[in-house]
């Protein structure tokens, strides 16, 4: 079995962002700092930054991320969206509302021509999300 998981890159706020995503999505969040691996060459400014974050929700979603070390180039996310689909309308609405807090609505979360509801939002960290509530029976 293969698994595809979104892995988000941040400059200096992975801990804050991943904690926010945990508050929206729920689940268990594991955070590993660069300082956990002193044998790896690193800038001392990166010691308390996040080398790897792993959020796994009770319904099986996984979202990972990390801070980009000071010595590496970083670009704001562009050209990609995290897509989340569920049959649970209450969960879809709660996730939408959580991501909208401090974010910008690109396409309102409304009825879609193919059934169910769909919307797009850019969250407070500049990450684009597509949220789908599947039509009943899909």
From TrEMBL:
Which residues are in the PhnB-like domain?
5-132
The residues that cross the membrane are: none
Pfam families xref list:
3-dmu-9_3-mt
Superkingdom is Bacteria
Question: What protein name does the entry list?
Answer: VOC family protein
Q: Which organism is it from?
A: Microbacterium bovistercoris
């Amino acid at each position: 079995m293969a698994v595809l998981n979104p892995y988000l890159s941040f400059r200096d706020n992975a801990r804050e962002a991943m904690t926010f995503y945990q508050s929206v999505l729920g689940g268990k969040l594991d955070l590993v700092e660069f300082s956990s691996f002193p044998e790896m060459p690193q800038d001392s400014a990166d010691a308390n930054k996040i080398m790897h974050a792993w959020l796994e929700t009770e319904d099986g979603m996984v979202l990972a991320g990390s801070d980009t070390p000071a010595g590496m180039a970083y670009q704001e996310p562009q050209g990609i969206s995290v897509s989340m689909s569920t049959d649970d309308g209450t969960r879809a609405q709660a996730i939408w509302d959580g991501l909208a807090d401090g974010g910008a609505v690109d396409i309102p979360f409304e009825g879609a021509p193919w059934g169910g509801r769909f919307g797009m939002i850019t969250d407070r960290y500049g990450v684009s999300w597509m949220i789908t509530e599947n039509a009943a029976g899909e």
